[in-house]
Amino acid sequence: MITIEEQNSHDLDWFMFDRNGNIGHFTTGGCLLPESISSKHTLDSLCSLSSFFDSLANLSEQYEVNPLLTAEKTNDLIRFEEKYGSYISITKKGVFSYDTNEPMNLSNTNYHLITSPVKRIKINDFPEAVKSQLCFCDIEFEQSYTIDIKALEMR
């Protein structure tokens, strides 16, 4: 289990899959994890899961940007790629990537899409040991520029 103190003092990466089998990556920015994630993992298991995703080969060098961020990318591509490099990196592996709306706010449960993959990896592409570490959420990442994790039923 990951304690509230650990959650508040770390920028944690966690993952879930949607009703279409797409994978979503979320960064907490020191906000609380969903109960289904914090009760299922330790800091070490989340780090191991992140390392697994980091080790995957890129499926595509192309990625899509949340339309609300398109102007930022257009105005200064180099700065955009520096600022959002970790999101772009995971998205090239076929994963949707979200960030918290209010870093360090423990009551915040809202995330917004940063980047989405052109070519997607699916939950069924993973071994059972990885699948068992991911929670299911009955949403579609393709349709979700913002997600309130508190309003979702995750299992």
From the structure above, extract its key features.
155 residues, alpha/beta, seven-stranded mixed sheet, 7 helices, globular
Task: Give a verbal description of the structure.
- This protein is of the alpha/beta class.
- 30% of the residues lie in helices and 20% in strands.
- It has seven helices and seven strands.
- A hairpin with a 5-residue loop joins strand 1 (13-17) and strand 2.
- It is globular.
β-strand percent reads: 15-25%
Q: What's the order of the H and E elements? A: HEEHHEHHHEEHEE
Number of strands: 7
Overall geometry comes to globular
Ranges with pLDDT <50 over ≥5 residues?
Answer: none
Count up the helices.
Answer: 7
What is the straight-line distance between the termini?
Answer: 16 Å
Q: Round the Cα radius of gyration to an integer and report it.
A: 15 Å
- How much helical structure, as a percent, in the residues? 25-40%
Average pLDDT rating: 91
Which secondary-structure class do the elements indicate? alpha/beta
Strand count, sense and barrel status of the largest sheet are: 7 strands, mixed
